[in-house]
What we know:
Helices cover 68% and strands 0% of the residues. The protein has helices spanning 3-39, 55-61, 65-81, 89-112, 121-128, 141-164, 166-185, 195-198, 201-221, 230-247, 258-277, 286-296, 298-314, 316-319, 327-359. It has 15 helices and no strands. It has one domain.
Amino acid sequence: MRSSDSDRVYLARVDHLRAAAAVLVVLYHGCQLLGARIEGRALTDAAQRQHSTNPAATLVLEGHTAVALFMVLSGFIFTVGAHGRPIRYGRFVTNRLLRVYPLYLVIAVLGLATQVALPSFEHLLAVLTFTTPGQPYGGVFWTLSVELQFYLLFPLLNRLLGERGPGALLRLLGAIALLRLLVWLSSPAPEPHTSALYLGLAGRIDQFLLGMLAAWCYLRHRERLRAGWLPPAALALALGALWGFHQLRGFMSDSPLKLVWSTLEGAVWAVFVAVYVAGARDRGGAVSRAAARLGEVSYSVYLTHFMVLTVLCEDARLVGALPSLPPVWAAFALSALVALPVTVGLSFLTYHAVELPFLRLRRPYLGSSPTGAGNATPPAARGEPGAVVRS
């Protein structure tokens, strides 16, 4: 395969995964928010959270797993892109800020505008740190804070992987797991909560590290990972793990098993990412191109969908439009047929109007390879100008 064809396949497959994760986030939040609105209950009432023994329904009802997929992808993409080449730390961090901050600031400032009082200095400071109080569109802002913390660590972690090999990251994973257990055991609460760990870098660093390890395997064993049966098997493994997690009450549970769930969740998605990206040649059909275009605007989808869902939840006529369906099915139908198309349409606008102008300001952050090792990496994966506008 020519280098340009290899680049196209790599980018398309990465964007397919981004698109799938973005769609899953919209459906998950749509089912939760619209479902609660239809049933007239509080979203925080764990006892009434939607539950199912159907594996297909589990994927949507535990659709927060898309966050794990995004985080695994972050570790994977940056590790592939930086393979064999030094990272210029300042440029790398600047590029990440240009990627994350512009659209986030637009959404966060618009959220502040929904409040009656003028924003204080504390509110503006909270915007800069992704902790805006009472933010109506901020349901996913916490993930951006976690991502930025990983960005600050990635050049060091990548050097560790390059100089010491995957064993260094595996040992780091083990140490983090042990420290996380000690934090949980030292809690003074009779029933220690696991949410703080699950929603912060302390509970999510596993997923970035596993994405980096998946990239290491992909770069060295691409040919072995191209067997056609591997992606379906890896997806079945991920769905099976998610189904088991859901039967234990999933995200709302404070079971000690959640201490290891982040690692398990990251591991199954890391396997899937590696085998899917390395899989059979992409033929570039209409479905593949459409999925890739959606993946290109996935960040906009991720940040704007709460705005759309907030509006839909306030429309009593729309919420009551499907009275013959069970609440969970009505919420799913509204999410898939209304919220998702509106969000995607809005996202193409915000991508080209807000994101793209700042993405074009980024500069290459990779130095030259002293050994030529980077030549084994597809140019589109290296962060060269215009090559990975999506990362």
